[in-house]
Amino acid sequence: MAHTCIHWFRKGLRLHDNPALVAALRDCKEIYPVFVLDPYSPNNVNIGINRWKFLIGALKDLDCSLRKLNSRLFVVRGKPDEVFPKLFQKWKVTRLTYEYDTEPFSLRRDKEVGRLAEEHGVEIIYKVSHTLYNIDRIIEENNGKAPLTYNRLQTLVSSIGPPKRPIPAPTRDDMKDVKTLCSEKHEENYGISTLEKLYQDPESLTEELFPGGEQEALRRLDQHMARKEWVCGFEKPQTSPNSLSPSTTVLSPYMTFGCLSARTFWWRLTDVYQGKKHSQPPVSLHGQLLWREFFYTAGLGIPNFDKMEGNPVCTQVDWDSNFEYLAAWAEARTGFPFIDAIMTQLRQEGWIHHLARHAVACFLTRGDLWISWEEGQKVFEELLLDGDWSLNAGNWQWLSASTFFHQFFRVYSPIAFGKKTDKNGDYIKKYLPHLKKYPAQYIYEPWKAPRSVQEAAGCIVGKDYPRPIVEHEVISKKNIQRMKAAYAKRSPHSSEESPGKKEKGLKKHVIYLQLL
């Protein structure tokens, strides 16, 4: 039987290493590559303009690649459970393929679409390719529970073996007997949306530093893999949070959207490492990919993973509800230049270094403002290009010392931490230009500058730049005691598999992964 297939693109916005797409082409006479754009889904309502721009770029790139195979991308607006029954009937579909997704919302969505497909006599095939491993298999190997330590994850994946090798992208030969029927009104009916149609204002965009798409992802991968010495020596904690250009690969957005396959990245690294001395997990680039796997496993195996309440591994903390503090943090007006520069970069560019994420996350939660990590999670979800659900939730729990990491007495200073790698404050001057005339001795603490220095710099604290929202030296000590009290209330069983002393070698590497 020759099938009429829909391949449903969701995250895997690529042709390379796409086993579900390859499965769609087997015994296939017609294929319809579909992307369902549902602006009001829970996954999309909190997305900022940079992420929409990246997605549009990725879809345009995908459509361009499909055209080279004599096919096209069909962008359909609406809810999947409403649009698919119509498409099944319209195109007389007999098979639906897609990449497996482990997020709770996606699993519920896919279950409902699966039910509808069965009603319409449509066969479903899904394949694992967004992660290195089958996440369900990892949990199964761990007696049905998500591993709560990185070392445990390493043990489990070592027993499973290396990730599967990536498969090549389909070629025109693979498509020679397969048609995609397009009408003259394709652009009108199934074209890619614009920012304006998504109610976004293009005028608010700054320079696009990270264009979306598979071709850009592969170009960047090639560029980094050519730096063999850098790749072999890469240690995540040794990279700089406030360099003027990224000190890491910035491949994470491309992996979040599936423009780059994690398995392709893994095996390209393996090729570079071959026969050479190189860094090891958890700090190496292979280690970063395993951290991604760790949080994906936690996201699938731990109930209510993106919340404090109902999350069985999360410390229950009596966080404050202070909307003024939250807004000041999110809008880069805390009065601490290092924190405000990071949040400005995040809003403008959609990306910040993992140690910069450490600094602002600690500041918002246990360090200074005592605001729930769930509120920070929402802001990152909106603004980060790599705002991946599992990694975002997991890292906010880690950095607030709520889950995984329990050394709550280690607090990032919003002043001293940035000075380690940027004494002159060049990063601050780039993102907060109104402070650029401040001398280095005051750039991290402008409120300490004499009035004459402030006037000479053309920026008066309290008028042109806010005073510090809190007194860090005082509030951080108070908050350590509050965390100590929260820990004292925890169940004695809640830390049975905590990273504590078991995770030798990880103490120095509190890694905000999402990372790369």
Give an overview of the whole structure:
This protein has helices at 19-25, 49-67, 80-91, 104-119, 135-141, 150-160, 186-190, 214-225, 228-233, 252-256, 262-273, 285-301, 323-330, 337-349, 354-367, 373-383, 389-399, 416-419, 426-431, 440-443, 451-457, 472-488, and strands at 3-9, 28-37, 74-77, 95-99, 123-127. The protein has 516 residues and is an alpha/beta fold. The protein has a domain at 323-490: Orthogonal Bundle (DNA Cyclobutane Dipyrimidine Photolyase, subunit A, domain 3), CATH 1.10.579.10. It has a five-stranded parallel beta sheet with strand order 3-2-1-4-5, sandwiched between helices. α4 (104-119) links the parallel β4 (95-99) and β5 (123-127). α12 (285-301) packs across α17 and α16 (373-383) runs antiparallel to α17.
| Biggest sheet details | 5 strands, parallel
What is the ordering of alpha helices and beta strands? EHEHEHEHEHHHHHHHHHHHHHHHHHH
Q: Distance N terminus to C terminus?
A: 44 Å
**What is the CATH architecture term of the domain at 323-490?**
Orthogonal Bundle
Strand content: 5-15%
What is the overall pLDDT average?
94
Mass-distribution shape: globular
